[in-house]
Amino acid sequence: MIGGLTRFILVVLLAANITGCNQYASDIDTVKAADSIVPGKSNEIIAIEIAGARGVINWTAGRSEKYDDPAMVVVSAVIKRIGATGIKHKVELQFLNNRQTKMVAFDQVLVDDKPKDLVSGAMSLFMMQLE
């Protein structure tokens, strides 16, 4: 049986965790709706297309380490997928949401934890589709 103090600490930690998650929920929604990579196609649709039928997408957000500004929030779509041959891949799309200017910019793509530019990242994603 859990003691009163332990139960209280668990409730406080759970409440803090829920509050922390909600702190960036609007940033994630903003980035999902924006069309930062392909004009006319939302970032969420791009992530879904990359994930395909075998993938899972996890959206996260937090303060930017690159910019020392609370208005700059990094939002990432971490896509884990298994190719038809069983090879596991991880694709991370990183975006910057500027809360002050209300602008969303595509920052970078990481394929299997390696940074790629837009052209080599697109080629890596294409090759994954062929697996």
Instruction: Quote the distance from N terminus to C terminus.
Output: 51 Å
Q: Please, how many helices?
A: 4
Number of domains: 1
Helix-strand category: alpha+beta
Number of strands: 5
Please tell me about this protein's structure.
This protein has helices at 4-22, 25-33, 43-51, 118-130, and strands at 55-63, 72-82, 88-98, 103-111, 114-116. It has 131 residues and is of the alpha+beta class. It has one domain (4-130). It has a 5-stranded antiparallel sheet with strand order 1-2-3-4-5.
Give a quick set of tags describing it.
single chain; 131 residues; 4 helices; 5 strands
What is this entry, summarized?
The protein has helices spanning about 5-20, 25-35, 45-50, 120-130; strands at about 55-65, 70-80, 90-100, 105-110, 115. With about 130 residues, it is an alpha+beta fold.
Topology:
Blueprint: H1 4-22, H2 25-33, H3 43-51, E1 55-63, E2 72-82, E3 88-98, E4 103-111, E5 114-116, H4 118-130
Antiparallel strand pairs: 1-2, 2-3, 3-4, 4-5
